[in-house]
Design goal:
There is one protein chain. The protein is of the alpha+beta class and 101 residues long. The chain has one domain. 43% of the residues lie in helices and 12% in strands. The protein has a two-stranded antiparallel sheet. A hairpin with a 2-residue loop joins strand 1 and strand 2. Helix 1 runs antiparallel to helix 2 and helix 2 packs across helix 4.
């Protein structure tokens, strides 16, 4: 049933419930992910902005710029959002990185 897939993200101590992307949003996300001219931080912020468009509580467009998340919260939130969409965030393959034996 549409609208059943949700997740929560924390941005600056404010908790938002986000919904899975619809087809139109997935198209925009796909273009954003494939755009090599957009850096990682800006990409993450745009993904979050898109997810907050239908979040609860609602975030008016002009209030998005006033949120005060940490860099880690931006990274975590964009990873959660992409996971909800069935997309894996770019990162270390399993077995690589700081936590690997």
């Amino acid at each position: 049933m549409p609208g059943d897939r949700t997740a929560q993200i924390d941005l600056g101590g404010k908790i938002f419930t986000i919904h899975a992307f619809n087809i139109g949003e997935l198209r925009r996300i796909s273009k954003l992910i494939m755009d090599d001219k957009v850096d990682g931080v800006e990409r993450g912020l745009e993904i979050i902005r898109m997810a907050l468009a239908r979040a609860e509580p609602q975030v008016p467009v002009d209030e998005f710029e006033t949120l005060e998340p940490t860099f880690d919260q931006v990274t975590t939130a964009s990873d959660i959002i992409l996971g909800l969409a069935g997309l894996k965030a770019a990162g270390n393959p399993p077995g690589e990185g700081a936590g690997a034996p």
